[in-house]
Each structure stands twice: as structure tokens, then as C-alpha cells.
């Protein structure tokens, strides 16, 4: 019993240490980025993984989410005679919040987990130690290209998801509530400002960094064997989702909440 309790205690401390390593890796990535040593070929490889390979699920989820959200909001607004506000409600909620979060969540599940599993497998098979023997910094070779790729591709995927969601919203509004596309789009334009689009891009950039750093950190701190590699990939996705929602809350308070003093 004492051994089991001690084992659980050590495991808990080990988990806390792995969470803390994520924040340390953020600082290391920034430092290495300022030093300017990057592997451009690796960046291009990971851009393909984080971009075109993730485009299809992002478009599908965003399109259906746009239709679902439009159906739910239009049903209530039409009852109050506020047909012209359907696109505006869509713009405020989907464009500002849902599109960046959905895109980042899909990338976390597909790309972040792959980063954690790949680097975790390299860790348990001593390939990262081999990089040290070759005088190659794992941060420069493994982490930094993945972070740059995700930071570049996540905003682009978010924009594509946003456009697909708007198309889905137009389709749902016209098919189920006979709202013409011109009315829907005019309402979207009246509520959505250019500053909102810049905020969407900023969210995509930050969410991409969160996905890459979380995945790489959990991969680098993997110990054990194949089972631990799978656990690292799963935990990387969960912690990334939590971090994305926390960051989105902070950004919403920063940009949209007016001070009361």
C-alpha cells in the first residue's frame, strides 16, 4: 500500500513537471526564434501537415457548424421579426469565436497529437539523444519548424473555415427560412468590422503556437514505451483544448469587454 501511494505521488509530481515544461518550452522557442537558426525544409514539410492535410476536416466542420448555428439563431429571431439580424448574430458569435476555436481544435486533434506521438516515439527510441550526439539542438530541428508551420497555417485555415461557415449559414438561412443571401451578407457586413478579422487572424496565430508547443512538449517529456507515447498524444490534445479556451477567454476580455471605470 505504501509503495502504491508513493508511486501515485511520484506520478502526480511527474505530471505537474510535464505541465510546467510546456511553459518553459514557450520561452525556449522564443529565444531560439530570435537567434534565427531555422531549418527551412522542415518548416515546409510541417506546413503541408498543418495546412493542406487538415483543410478538409476544417471545411467540413465549419460548414456544418455554420448551418447549425444559423438554424438555431434564425428560428428565434424570425419569431420576433428580426430577420435582418440573423447574419449579424452569426457574425458576432461564429466569426469571432466559433471559427477560430473549431479550426484550432481540429488542428490540435490531427496535428498536435501527431507531433506528440512522433517526437515521443523519437524520445523513447533514443533518437533525440542521437541528435545531441550530432550537435543538433532538438529545439531548432524538431520544435521550431513545427511551431512556425502551425503559426503560419492555422490563421489561413481559420479564414477558410470562416468563409465555409458563412456559406453554410447562407445556405441554411435561404433553404429553411427563405432569407435571401443579400440580406444575410448585408447583416454580416454591418456587424463585422475589419478589426474583427484582424482579431481572428491573431487568434489563429496564437492558437497555432499553442497547438505546436503543447504537442512538442508532451512528446519531448515522454518516458517509457509505446503506451506512454499514446498517453502523451492524448494528453497533448486535452491540454491544448484547455489552453485554447483559456487563451480565447483572455482575448475576449481584452478586446471585447469594455472597462467599467
Chart the SSEs and their pairings.
Layout: H1 2-35, H2 40-50, H3 52-79, H4 86-124, H5 127-133, H6 138-177, H7 181-191, H8 194-220, H9 226-256
Helix pairs in contact: 1-6, 1-8, 2-3, 2-6, 3-4, 3-6, 4-6, 4-7, 4-8, 4-9, 6-8, 8-9
Subcellular location: Membrane
GO molecular function: phospholipid transporter activity
Protein name: ABC transporter permease protein
Brief account:
It is found in: Membrane. It contains 9 helices and no strands.
Description:
The protein has one domain (25-252). The model is unreliable at 1-14 (pLDDT under 50). With 261 residues, the protein is mainly α. Helices cover 87% and strands 0% of the residues. The chain has helices at residues 2-35, 40-50, 52-79, 86-124, 127-133, 138-177, 181-191, 194-220, 226-256. 41% of the residues are buried. α2 packs parallel to α6, α4 packs across α7 (181-191) and α4 (86-124) runs parallel beside α8. The chain is elongated. The chain crosses the membrane at residues 16-34, 46-71, 77-95, 156-177, 197-221, 233-256. Keywords: Membrane, Transmembrane, Transmembrane helix, Transport. GO terms for molecular function: phospholipid transporter activity. It is a multi-pass membrane protein. Belongs to the MlaE permease family.
Q: What kind of assembly state do the chains in view correspond to?
A: single chain
Q: Distance between the terminal alpha carbons, to the nearest Å?
A: 56 Å
Sequence of secondary-structure elements: HHHHHHHHH
What would you report as the Rg, rounded to the nearest angstrom?
A: 21 Å
Q: How many H/I helices?
A: 9
Strand content: under 5%
**Structural class estimated from helices and strands:** mainly alpha
Q: Give the helix proportion (percent range).
A: over 70%
Low-confidence stretches: 1-14
Amino acid at each position: 500500500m505504501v509503495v502504491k501511494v508513493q508511486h501515485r505521488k511520484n506520478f502526480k509530481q511527474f505530471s505537474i513537471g510535464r505541465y510546467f515544461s510546456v511553459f518553459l518550452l514557450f520561452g525556449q522557442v522564443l529565444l531560439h526564434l530570435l537567434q534565427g537558426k531555422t531549418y527551412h525544409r522542415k518548416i515546409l514539410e510541417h506546413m503541408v501537415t498543418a495546412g493542406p492535410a487538415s483543410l478538409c476536416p476544417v471545411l467540413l466542420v465549419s460548414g456544418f457548424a455554420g448551418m447549425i448555428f444559423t438554424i438555431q439563431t434564425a428560428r428565434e429571431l424570425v419569431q420576433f421579426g428580426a430577420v435582418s439580424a440573423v447574419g449579424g448574430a452569426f457574425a458576432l458569435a461564429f466569426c469571432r469565436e466559433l471559427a477560430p476555436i473549431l479550426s484550432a481544435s481540429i488542428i490540435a486533434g490531427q496535428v498536435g497529437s501527431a507531433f506528440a506521438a512522433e517526437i515521443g516515439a523519437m524520445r523513447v527510441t533514443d533518437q533525440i539523444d542521437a541528435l545531441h550526439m550530432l550537435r543538433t539542438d532538438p529545439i531548432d530541428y524538431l520544435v521550431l519548424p513545427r511551431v512556425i508551420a502551425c503559426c503560419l497555417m492555422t490563421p489561413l485555415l481559420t479564414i477558410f473555415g470562416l468563409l465555409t461557415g458563412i456559406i453554410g449559414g447562407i445556405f441554411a438561412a435561404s433553404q429553411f427560412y427563405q432569407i435571401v443571401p443579400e440580406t444575410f451578407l448585408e447583416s454580416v457586413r454591418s456587424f463585422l468590422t475589419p478589426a474583427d478579422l484582424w482579431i481572428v487572424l491573431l487568434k489563429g496565430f496564437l492558437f497555432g503556437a499553442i497547438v505546436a508547443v503543447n504537442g512538442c512538449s508532451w512528446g519531448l517529456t515522454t518516458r517509457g514505451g509505446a503506451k506512454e507515447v499514446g498517453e502523451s498524444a492524448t494528453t497533448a490534445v486535452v491540454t491544448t483544448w484547455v489552453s485554447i479556451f483559456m487563451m480565447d477567454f483572455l482575448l475576449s476580455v481584452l478586446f471585447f469587454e469594455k472597462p467599467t471605470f
